[in-house]
Write a structure and sequence with these properties.
This protein has about 190 residues and is mainly α. It has two domains: about 80 residues, Orthogonal Bundle (Rna Polymerase Sigma Factor, Chain: A), CATH 1.10.1740.10; about 90 residues, Arc Repressor Mutant, subunit A (Orthogonal Bundle). It is built from nine helices and no strands. Helix 2 packs across helix 3, helix 3 packs across helix 4 and helix 8 crosses helix 9.
Length: about 190
């Protein structure tokens, strides 16, 4: 880190100076935490170009909130969290999500007897209809699990959820899918 007039200033001093329009204070903040922001984005899977874009977004967010920071001494953690969350959000936006129809079409299904083809098509159609009736969170989770075949850790990172959230939510979503299938069968 280069020596400068703000080298030994606290984060609170730098934020106060930057909020007052002091470019040197802002530059020192960026110098102090630029690598942290960049590597926080990389840590959740952002490639170098995306991490650079995320860094710019994070610094713009901080710039727009300079006068509203409640606890300036926690700025390091705030920057890291915002960088990770922004990177996850951008990764989710950029990742194509398979549609359930693509999943069903890509499955290696055994050869079917001609008399069972119509029944199988009806079953596939019922699954698609039941799947569409699920909430967005369940559709997203089940798609990531079964179509994208991501690990729990990858899903947690993609959705910005704790790892322990995946299993129980998976169970609730599968139960909801089963309930929707039963409703369709009863109709």
């Amino acid at each position: 880190m280069p020596d400068g007039p703000f080298q030994n200033d606290t984060d609170a001093d730098l934020l106060k100076g930057a909020a007052a329009g002091d470019q040197a204070a802002w530059n020192q903040l960026v110098d102090r935490y630029g690598r942290l922001v960049y590597h926080s984005a990389r840590a959740v899977g952002a490639d170098p170009d995306l991490a650079t874009d995320v860094s710019q977004i994070v610094w713009m967010r901080l710039l727009s909130r300079l006068d509203t920071i409640r606890d300036p001494e926690k700025i390091k953690g705030w920057l890291a969290i915002v960088a990770r969350n922004t990177a996850r959000s951008e990764l989710t936006k950029r990742r194509p999500t398979p549609v359930i129809d693509d999943l069903l079409q890509s499955m290696d299904l055994p050869e079917r007897e001609p008399e069972n083809v119509i029944l199988a098509e009806e079953e596939d159609s019922a699954i698609r209809r039941a799947f569409r009736r699920l909430g967005e969170a369940c559709r997203e989770l089940l798609t990531l699990l079964f179509a994208a075949e991501l690990s729990y850790a990858e899903i947690a990172a993609t959705l910005g959820r704790p790892l322990g959230w995946i299993g129980p939510t998976r169970g609730r979503c599968l139960a909801a899918l089963t309930a929707e299938l039963r409703k369709l069968e009863a109709a």
